[in-house]
């Protein structure tokens, strides 16, 4: 009989599969792709995923090692998910084993059985009487029995304390056989008659048109861009579409950006539906994640809501995919498998033959381009749903005006007026810490990071200098490390400094700082938000965390301290990002009765992009930005891939990229590919980071197909290059940061 060979994807960066002898007893008929197999790998044991079984191998028979154990009797991965992972690995030129590791819940990768957790359920025993005479002198047991009797389906062990059920009493009741315990899967919730737990809002005509367009494509693939200004009721459109999908017996996948997990969004879903909702975000532990994943796979969750990686959640009956805030950069993973969850969601929708809705007030230029090209249906919501007026914009020229902690005199006046009128003010500044640099006034020393080509930020509260690029931190020096004198001055303004200054300027009003430092403690965010919701006049100062998803109905003035970074930057996406930030921050203002005002401090008050944005709105800006991208041959009119390298010694990464570049040049000729430019290698914009020297090579192509043809041959060769050993390198397909 021919031997059975297992071809496995292993958690390794190498872009190849690994052959093993099948373990004893395994038969070809029992094997399915996606099954997990424990195998020896070097001196370790790892868990691989079966890709295919074969009777032959190119590995010589005496080198083939036997697999140790099959972990599954049934594949835990439905074929659609396996296919999506194959596609992903191919498209991003990433090892399949590593791709599967990113896509699967941690516990599955570690070999945990692919079964939902068993739980103990407490019931009143058959025939037990609440007035059992043995309980006359045991009031606590009697009480417990009575409580339990109110729950016909039993009570899960983990919920006992929530219902004030005493464990000891239950144990005593168990001895008396008045209660029983059953071990089973967590109960699939019984649904009441209707999916709605709360009535729906009557839609306005634009919302209705959007819902109807999407609804009419149920049952097949079609992509929609739902472009609706902040507060236009996009979420209401999602909710009504979800209800309609549920009514047809389908499941819905909703992706949300990382930071948007304000309890506000989730609460709206939970309040609206009488449905089983599985949550997959960063605060969910590994066990909960696996349970949610299994529930979705087995059709026991109706709605799956999660961040980036939730894209890989299998669904038994997929009906609709929603990507909220589709422009958000957190959909792109910036390490390991550098996938874009929005882009993969489109691939998945096509594969599952379901409609997909990409929603945003500030759509990415990529998505707008796709809409213009007719690939996506474009649905616009132009009015704020609650009837609130859009904010007014004011470009405040600060050339040669004195700034006090970044705040000009006219802005200070506007803040005073707003607070005196009993309203709230939001001050936006995309830089945390006290000041971006510490400078010695006597000798010119600056607080450079010892490990990066970057400056360390002054953090006043913790009295530290911290590098925001590598995490290095040290005590803030009292004397200049170079000349020993004491005139060290913080240069520039971060949120801490703005907060400190605003407290002095407006002593009667509370100042609330919202950034990663002030909200890192659990619950800190909730406390801040409940203060804001109370509605008394106050100042909020913060970073882009303020731009996301939250409603601040009492904020009527938004101040953007510095818009210039986005207009100067070398990164071609900087202006798009700046415009999105400004519009998103502005969208927080005046959502209720009072109209909002947005003041943008800038040295470039006449910059065409800024003028367009503030006078004609985001879509006019986007058209202008798109035509600039077209003229410059940049995405979405070109396709990019970025090969990055970093090494301990200067020059090493560039040497490797040089070899990679000549290899690519050969291949272009050999494969007769055209329309691909190789730009570089060049040192990265920040050449040294965390003690490593970095360089990059950019591939720019006018069509996707030849670029991918090149990469599929090029990457396996790069793995063989001798220079690659000392260099940590990675490929980023469709990079969003060219750093
Ligand atoms: P978006 O998601 O576009 O920012 P939301 O869905 O959060 O907008 O809606 C903004 C506000 O308008 C919410 O308070 C919401 O309850 C309300 N709203 C949405 N649609 C309607 C409607 N059709 N009628 C009345 N109020 C609505
Ligand atoms: Zn000095
Ligand atoms: Zn650093």
Automatic annotation (TrEMBL):
Gene Ontology CC terms: primosome complex
Gene Ontology biological process terms in this record: DNA recombination; DNA replication initiation; DNA replication, synthesis of primer; double-strand break repair
Cofactor entry: Zn(2+)
Textual note on the cofactor: Binds 2 zinc ions per subunit.
Keyword hit for Zinc-finger: no
GO MF terms held by the record: 3'-5' DNA helicase activity; ATP binding; ATP hydrolysis activity; DNA binding; zinc ion binding
Residues where Zn(2+) 1 binds: 440, 443, 480, 483
Xref: PROSITE patterns: HELICASE_ATP_BIND_1, HELICASE_CTER
Role according to the record: Initiates the restart of stalled replication forks, which reloads the replicative helicase on sites other than the origin of replication. Recognizes and binds to abandoned replication forks and remodels them to uncover a helicase loading site. Promotes assembly of the primosome at these replication forks.
Protein name, as recorded: Replication restart protein PriA
Gene field: priA
């Amino acid at each position: 009989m021919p031997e059975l060979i297992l071809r496995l994807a292993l958690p390794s960066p190498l872009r190849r599969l690994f052959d093993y002898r099948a373990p004893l007893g395994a038969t070809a008929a029992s094997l399915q792709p996606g099954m997990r197999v424990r195998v020896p790998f070097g001196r370790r044991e790892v868990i691989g995923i079966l890709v295919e079984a074969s009777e032959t191998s190119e590995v010589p028979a005496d080198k083939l090692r036997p697999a140790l154990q099959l972990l599954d009797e049934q594949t835990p991965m439905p074929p659609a998910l396996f296919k999506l992972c194959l596609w992903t690995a191919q498209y991003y030129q990433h090892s399949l084993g590593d791709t599967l590791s990113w896509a699967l819940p941690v516990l599955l990768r570690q070999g945990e059985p692919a079964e939902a957790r068993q739980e103990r359920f407490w019931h009143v025993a058959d025939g037990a009487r609440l007035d059992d005479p043995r309980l006359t002198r045991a009031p606590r047991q009697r009480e417990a029995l009575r409580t339990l009797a109110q729950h016909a389906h039993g009570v899960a062990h983990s919920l006992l304390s929530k219902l004030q059920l005493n464990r000891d009493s239950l144990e005593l009741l168990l001895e008396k056989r008045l209660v029983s315990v059953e071990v089973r899967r967590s109960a699939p919730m019984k649904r009441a008659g209707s999916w709605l737990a709360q009535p729906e809002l009557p839609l306005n005509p634009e919302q209705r048109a959007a819902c109807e367009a999407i609804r009419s494509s149920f049952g097949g693939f079609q992509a929609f861009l739902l472009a609706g200004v902040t507060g236009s009721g996009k979420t209401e459109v999602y909710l009504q579409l979800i209800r309609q999908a549920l009514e047809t017996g389908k499941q819905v996948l909703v992706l949300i950006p990382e930071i948007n997990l304000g309890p506000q969004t989730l609460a709206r879903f939970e309040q609206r539906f009488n449905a089983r909702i599985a949550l997959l975000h960063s605060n969910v532990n590994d066990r909960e994640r696996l349970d949610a994943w299994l529930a979705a796979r087995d059709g026991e969750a109706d709605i799956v809501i999660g961040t980036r990686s939730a894209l890989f959640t299998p669904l038994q009956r997929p009906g609709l995919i929603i990507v909220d805030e589709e422009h958000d950069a957190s959909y792109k993973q910036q390490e390991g498998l550098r996938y874009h969850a929005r882009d993969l969601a489109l691939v998945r929708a096509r594969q599952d033959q379901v409609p997909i809705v990409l929603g945003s007030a500030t759509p990415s230029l990529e998505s707008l381009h796709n809409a213009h090209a007719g690939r996506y249906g474009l649905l616009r919501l132009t009015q704020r749903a609650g009837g609130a007026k859009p904010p007014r914009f004011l470009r405040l020229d600060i050339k040669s005006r004195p700034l006090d902690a970044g705040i000009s005199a006219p802005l200070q006046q506007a803040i005073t007026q707003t607070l005196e009128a009993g309203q709230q003010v939001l001050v936006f500044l995309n830089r945390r810490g006290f000041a971006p640099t510490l400078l010695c006034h006597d000798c010119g020393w600056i607080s450079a990071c010892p490990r990066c080509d970057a400056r360390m930020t002054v953090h006043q509260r913790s009295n530290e200098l911290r590098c925001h690029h590598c995490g290095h931190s040290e005590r803030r020096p009292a004397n200049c490390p170079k000349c020993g004198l004491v005139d060290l001055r913080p240069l520039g303004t971060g949120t801490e400094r703005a907060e400190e200054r605003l407290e002095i300027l407006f002593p009667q009003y509370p100042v609330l700082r919202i950034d990663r430092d002030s909200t890192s403690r659990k619950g800190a965010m909730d406390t801040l938000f409940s203060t804001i919701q109370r509605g008394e006049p106050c100042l909020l100062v913060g970073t882009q965390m303020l731009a996301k998803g939250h409603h601040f109905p009492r904020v009527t003035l938004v101040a953007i301290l510095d818009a210039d970074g986005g207009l100067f930057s070398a990164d071609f996406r900087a202006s798009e990002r700046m415009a999105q930030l400004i519009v998103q921050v502005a969208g927080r203002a005046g959502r209720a009765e009072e109209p909002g005002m947005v003041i943008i401090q800038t040295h470039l008050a006449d910059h065409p992009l800024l003028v367009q944005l503030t006078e004609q709105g985001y879509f006019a800006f986007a058209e202008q930005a798109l035509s600039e991208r077209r003229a410059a041959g940049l995405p979405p009119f070109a396709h990019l891939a970025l090969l990055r390298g970093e090494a301990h010694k200067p020059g090493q990464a560039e040497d490797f990229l040089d070899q990679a570049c000549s290899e690519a040049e050969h291949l272009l000729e050999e494969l007769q590919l055209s329309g691909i430019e190789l730009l570089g290698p060049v040192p990265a914009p920040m050449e040294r980071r965390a003690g490593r020297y970095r360089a990059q090579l950019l591939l720019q192509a006018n069509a996707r197909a030849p670029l991918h043809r090149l990469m599929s041959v090029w990457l396996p060769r790069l793995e063989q290059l001798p220079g690659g050993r000392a260099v940590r390198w990675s490929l980023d397909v469709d990079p969003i940061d060219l750093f």
